[in-house]
Specification:
With 383 residues, this protein is an all-alpha fold. The chain has helices at residues 2-19, 31-44, 52-58, 76-85, 90-112, 117-121, 123-131, 134-141, 146-161, 165-174, 179-191, 195-216, 221-239, 246-254, 258-282, 287-301, 313-322, 328-344, 351-370, 378-381. The longest helix is centred in the C-terminal third of the chain and has 25 residues, at 258-282. It is globular. It starts with a helix and ends with a helix. 48% of the residues are buried.
Length: 383
């Protein structure tokens, strides 16, 4: 049954991508921003990558809102990846994007098989549960990258569990493609005094910085950061009803202005980081619980996390499962919350998804304080 569901979903998405009309709607949701960024780099280089007029022109005919555009605010090395597939054309690049994200889902579950008898026995069903979780399904169809974020969290946890701390650091460092998660995760690793992980992450960050420098010069961080922060207010005005991070969610509910919203975000972010840092120190020897808490915790305290990022709640559930906690009630509740949100989205905001994220985080914290100490690494499990 899970395999049949996955095959049906794959067929529906593939047929929709191949025969869907971009004239009648927007094929790929958010994917036009990524494709256009890659197309700009492939055609004319990086100099005008963050020019609004250039981005708008590159997205002409790809989005339903004629005259509008989706701003690409990612670091320049992300555009480099899309520059590889942009010459294939929009539809083919969209299919490649979905295939890569589906592969990330498979890799996420596969990495956990040696750690969990449950995942090993039912890995196809687990994979189906992950992909059919509504925020992840929406991310997959919308051309977003939530599954890559999930893979990097799980890869870091698996690598630490296996005693490969430098490899874990590389996974942590690659999360720099989303600095709002990558930077605070690196700070948590520092608080946890995992210095080999820190070394791997800093080496990866240096490599990514040099990739950006090759594109835009050694001073690229300043102009890029200016563009990214300017995008914040625009995004809050347009997508506030889709936020699942606590700063964005509360800012939208209360109707705060940009100054008040930024202050609120700073307060929640600082308090959240202090709380997560305390929990990380408490779980020094338990990599799985640390990354389980960080996954949902960082989504909740980031300035702006959109609804599809709630899919990262699956990381917390998967890591708790690998740790020995097969919580069917949590699985069912979080899964149901995703689809109830989709069914009621025109009427209410993202409250159900926020509750699902908080529930996953609270379950992880409860396991940290209430469950007996597990086997925390492959090395310690050996005789």
């Amino acid at each position: 049954m899970p395999a049949a569901l996955l095959a049906t979903l794959a067929l529906v998405i593939l047929v929709g991508a191949l025969v869907g009309s971009m004239e009648d709607g927007q094929l790929g949701g958010d994917f036009p921003a990524f494709f256009a960024a890659g197309d700009i780099v492939a055609e004319s280089g990086y100099e005008d990558l963050y020019d609004p007029g250039v981005q708008q022109a590159a997205q002409e005919g790809l989005i339903a809102n004629e005259g509008g555009y989706l701003f690409f605010a990612y670091p320049p090395f992300v555009a480099s990846g899309y520059a590889v597939v942009a010459p294939l054309g929009y539809r083919a690049a969209y299919v490649v994007q979905m295939l890569l994200m589906a592969a990330a889902a498979v890799a996420t579950v596969w990495l956990l098989r040696p750690m969990s008898e449950f995942v090993r026995r039912y890995w196809v069903a687990v994979l189906a549960g992950v992909i059919l979780f509504q925020p992840i399904t929406a991310s997959l169809i919308g051309g977003q990258n939530t599954l890559l974020t999930m893979l990097l969290f799980v890869a870091a946890a698996r690598a630490e569990w296996s005693g490969q701390e430098v490899l874990a650091g590389i996974a942590v460092g690659l999360l720099a493609y989303k600095p709002q998660y990558g930077l605070p995760l690196l700070l948590l690793v520092m608080v946890g005094r995992r210095w080999r992980v820190v070394a791997g992450a800093l080496g990866t960050w240096f490599g990514l910085y040099m990739a950006g420098a090759a594109a835009l010069g050694f001073g690229w961080l300043g102009p890029w950061w200016e563009q990214a922060t300017a995008f914040r207010d625009i995004n809050a005005g347009v997508n506030g009803h889709l936020f699942v991070s606590l700063p964005g969610y509360i800012e939208h509910l209360t109707g705060m202005g940009s100054d008040g919203g930024q202050m609120l975000g700073l307060a929640i972010g600082a308090a959240g980081m202090l709380g997560l840092a305390w929990l990380w120190r408490r779980a020094q020897q338990d990599a799985l619980i640390r990354y389980a808490m960080a996954a949902t915790g960082l989504i909740l305290i980031a300035p702006q996390s959109l609804f599809y990022e709630a899919g990262v709640a699956a990381v917390t559930i998967l890591l708790l499962t690998a740790r020995g906690r097969v919580d069917k009630q949590l699985m069912t509740g979080v899964f149901a919350a995703g689809w109830l949100y989709a069914a009621t989205a025109p009427l209410i905001n993202t409250t159900l998804l926020v509750v699902a994220l908080v529930a996953a985080l609270m379950r992880a914290i409860a396991d940290l304080y209430g469950a007996p100490a597990p086997v925390v690494s492959a090395a310690s499990a050996a005789p």
